[in-house]
Design brief:
Number of strands: 8
Strand content: 15-25%
CATH class: Alpha Beta
Order of helices and strands: HHEEEHEHEHEHEEH
CATH topology: Rossmann fold
CATH superfamily: Flavodoxin domain
Structural class: alpha/beta
Largest sheet: 6 strands, parallel
Number of helices: 7
Helix content: 25-40%
């Protein structure tokens, strides 16, 4: 009887150690390194959602930062301020056709980050041209980093955005990418959470 009691106690101790001992093998932001969300977002007159104070992509960028703890750098230009939707898309097409690179405000030190989310709306099959200004300025700064493209759209999906990011940053590890309808972003945070969970965040 005493021998049986000793055996049972030893088994209980082993079970306790296996349940509580040792660190959990979960992926953390420390293991992934520091993350940054780089994005352009257009407030004002937008297709499908009307005149909005906060752009669709900004909302997704905020979700990403809230969930992952990532820093943000918003690509800001005042070139499109106050423009109605139709003149805006006409100007965007002209910029794309001419390969224009509009100026943006400020900048960010990319060397501090290991994972970079890059997001924007889809204008004429890819990101707005002002984002390509950023790409050109930082074309040598993302080598060896993980780059995760995302878009907001009303039917274009990812369009050519992933391919264009790969072309802009050939030394980066560019992932598959994520897209969400602009009219969904205010009510479908769960889709962003599911995407990020699939990436290990």
């Amino acid at each position: 009887m005493i021998f049986k009691t000793i055996i049972m106690a030893a088994m209980g101790l082993l079970v306790t150690m296996s349940c509580s001992g040792g660190p959990k093998q979960e992926t953390t932001m420390e293991q992934k390194g520091k993350a940054l969300v780089v994005f352009f977002s257009h407030a004002g007159d937008n297709y499908a959602v009307g005149n909005i104070e906060v752009g669709n992509t900004k909302i997704v960028a905020d979700y990403i930062s809230e969930i992952t703890g990532a820093d943000q750098f918003e690509i800001v230009t005042h070139k499109y301020d106050g423009m109605a939707y139709n003149p805006l898309i006409k100007l965007a097409q002209e910029e794309a056709n001419k390969g224009e690179l509009p100026e943006y405000e400020g900048d960010v030190d990319m060397s501090k980050y290991d994972t970079v989310f890059i997001g924007g709306p889809v204008w004429w099959g890819t990101y707005p041209q002002v984002m390509f200004t950023f790409f050109k300025k930082h074309e040598n700064d993302l080598a060896g980093k993980t780059v995760i493209p995302f878009t907001t759209h009303e039917g274009s999906g990812l369009a050519n955005c992933v391919e264009d990011v790969k072309d802009a940053f050939p030394g980066a590890n560019v992932t598959k990418g994520f897209s969400i309808y602009g009219h969904e972003v205010r009510t479908e945070r769960a889709k962003v959470e599911k995407w990020l969970k699939g990436l290990g965040f």
